[in-house]
């Protein structure tokens, strides 16, 4: 792969900070209450969900242009879960894709499946994380 852009961020754990190399991202990190934390900061699952949702929505716009479909009223919500997986932890994702009425049915299904094949985050997770696609 020839890199077009490289992002870099540094973090010092779930109870610290995450800072991007350019300073555009500078966030306190905290364990969510569900995992015993105080919730007074974001967490890696929220960051992953935001990145995956944004990437998937952008990928859907690109795929939509190729398919001659208007995706401007579509939105994507990524739900990232963490849980026990053997001796460690694992992630799973539910991608909730809200499509306008004009993209209902088979057209929307083909769009979302083509987007999932195209999206860099989907490619990175394929075979590693269970990703469920839900069209709403």
If you had to describe this structure to a student in words, what would you say it looks like?
The protein is an alpha+beta fold. It is built from 3 helices and 6 strands; from the N terminus they run βββαββααβ. The chain has helices spanning 44-66, 106-118, 120-125; strands at residues 9-11, 17-20, 26-28, 75-85, 88-98, 130-135. The protein has a 3-stranded antiparallel beta sheet, with no helix packed on it. Strands 4-5-6 form a 3-stranded mixed beta sheet, covered by helices on one side. The termini are far apart. The mean pLDDT is 96.
Tell me briefly what this model is.
This protein has 136 residues and is of the alpha+beta class. Helix content is 31%, strand content 28%.
Q: What portion of residues is helical?
A: 25-40%
> Count the helices. How many?
3
User: What's the pLDDT, averaged over the residues?
Assistant: 96
Show unreliable segments: none
Number of strands: 6
Strand order of the largest sheet: 1-2-3
Written as H for each helix and E for each strand, in order along the chain, the element string is EEEHEEHHE
Separation of the first and last Cα atoms: 34 Å
Would you tell me the structural class of the helices and strands? alpha+beta
Beta strand %:
25-35%
- What is the molecular shape? globular
């Amino acid at each position: 792969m020839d890199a077009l852009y490289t992002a870099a961020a540094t973090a010092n754990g779930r109870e610290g900070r995450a800072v991007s190399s350019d300073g555009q991202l500078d966030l306190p990190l905290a364990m969510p209450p569900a995992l015993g934390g105080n919730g007074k900061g974001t967490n890696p699952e929220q960051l992953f969900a935001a990145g995956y949702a944004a990437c998937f929505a952008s990928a859907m716009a690109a795929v939509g242009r190729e398919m001659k479909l208007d995706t401007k009223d579509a939105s994507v919500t990524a739900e990232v879960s963490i849980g026990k997986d053997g001796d460690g932890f694992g992630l799973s994702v539910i991608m909730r894709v809200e499509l306008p009425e004009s993209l209902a049915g088979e057209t929307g299904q083909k769009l979302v499946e083509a987007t999932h094949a195209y999206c860099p985050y989907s490619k990175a997770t394929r075979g590693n994380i269970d990703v469920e696609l839900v069209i709403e």
